[in-house]
Amino acid sequence: MDEFKAISLWTSDRQSPEWQKKRGVRLGLGDDAASISAANEVDGISGPKNMLLAMDTMVETIHFNDVTMTDEDVGYKALAANVSDIAAMGGVPLHALVSVSVPPAYGPERIARIYDGLYNCASRYGIAIVGGDTTASPDKLVVAVTLTGSVEAGAELRRDGAKPGDRLFLTGPVGMSAAGLHLLGDGGGYTSANQLLSDEYRNLVLAHRRPAPSVTAGRLLMASGVCTSLNDVSDGLASEAWELAEASGLRLVLEEDRLPKSGSLASYGGRIGYSPLDWMLYGGEDYVLLGTVQEASAEKLASLFRENGLPFYVIGTTESGEPGVEMIPAEAAGIGKDSVMRDGNGYREQRRTLHKKGYNHFER
């Protein structure tokens, strides 16, 4: 099968021309470049807007293998990672370009399953796939996705807006994807990853294989006007907290006993004798949002999330000082604040520094 027949197999009849036109697509798959109407309002933004651009790449043996992911999962997650970046800016995902480098071991039918996952994610988030590229690869599969989005002009949520005294929050539990990856890597003694789909830890596996980017949460945070900084948790909570701290030029203080932890995460950690805290701090790929909010508005924002059926957890605070991240251990939370207060910074003697550790492609 030649390249053009293969592309047609993978992409034809996936999204109707009418559906794409409603999303501003004037020319999509089949031409040298896509043509998109900048005036479309499918994003719900009627006034001035800015374009958002994100790109993410998944490489076989680095991000996935046949044990940890199905072919459909690879396609789904390649797009979902980009959706999370758009969500972290408070934006709406719109159009995707998909590049696939195919090794000899992958036949056309297998790549078709990867596109099944891509289009499944695209359908879930209203994304039009409008083009891309296909090449041969000598050994490993590579899937790279570029995603466009939009946000109200000047309303982008950035990493550098936190102020001392802000409250630090998460929009969901962390550590589940890392625990799912551990499980899939035979951590639970299973012979097949698919057996886990009927197991009590199914949600851990799905958190790794089919993450749910926080687009609705990002839009709520943007519209609230009180979110001072935002980041998505892709490389681990500690690493993302450091990014906020360095971008905003202040210190973040997390409280361990406030970190949201799912019951299945705690159960699995207990089963294998491993502390879930390591997954929570350093695991990554949770795609929830980590941000800061003005202290006076924290409860109002929490109420807004509850009204919309979304989780919201205040997990710490910010303070002036050398950029960094510290955590108050759970065992220190019950100690009287006055007994360990120093320089107005509370629990100073009980804190421990969280190192800037998370997934890093260039550390081996």
Strand order of the largest sheet: 8-10-7-11-9-12-13
Helix share, percent? 25-40%
Question: How many domain regions?
Answer: 2
What's the CATH C level of the largest domain? Answer: Alpha Beta
**Got a strand count?**
13
* Second-tier CATH architecture of the largest domain: Alpha-Beta Complex
Q: Report low-confidence residues grouped into runs of 5 or more.
A: 335-345
Shape: globular
- First-last Cα distance: 39 Å
Q: Which range does the strand content fall in?
A: 15-25%
Counting DSSP H or I runs of 4 or more residues, the number of helices is: 12
Give the H and E element order: HHEEEHEHEEEHHHEHEHHEHEEHE
Q: How would a textbook summarize the main sheet?
A: 7 strands, mixed
CATH superfamily of the largest domain: PurM-like C-terminal domain
Average per-residue pLDDT, rounded, comes to 87
- Rg to the nearest angstrom? 22 Å
The CATH topology of the largest domain is given as Phosphoribosyl-aminoimidazole Synthetase, Chain A, domain 2
Binding site for Mg(2+) 1: 56, 133
Catalytic activity: thiamine phosphate + ATP = thiamine diphosphate + ADP
Binding site for Mg(2+) 2: 56, 85
Binding site for ATP: 115, 132-133, 159, 234
